Amino acid sequence: MIDLLTIFVLAVFVGFEVVSKVSTILHTPLMSGANAIHGVILVGAILITGRAEHALEVTLGLLAVFLATVNVVGGFVVTDRMLEMFKGHKGGKPVKSAANGHKEVGE
Q1: 3-class SS of residue 106
Q2: Rounded to the nearest 10 degrees, how much is the dihedral formed by the CA atoms of 65, 70, 75, 80?
C-alpha cells in the first residue's frame, strides 16, 4: 500500500511540475493532443475500479473516474473554443468571435 501511495505522490509532483512549465500560448494546442492520453487514463480508472474489492478502493476509483471524465470533457471544450477562433468568415454573415464576444462582419 505504501508503494502505491509513493507512486501517486510522485505522479502528482511530476504532473504539477510539467504542467506549470508549459507557457500559456502553448497550453491550448497541447490540450488537443493530450485528450487522447486523458482518455486512456479514464479507461484505466474504469478498469481498476471494476476490480476493486474494498470500499476505499471503490471510492477512490470512482473519484478517479469522475476527475478523469471532467478532465477529458474540459479538454474537448477548450479545444472546441480554440477551433472556433480559427474558423473563417463565410458569406458576409455576422460571426460571433469567441475571443471577445463581439460580432464581426465577415467578407
Answers
A1: coil
A2: 130
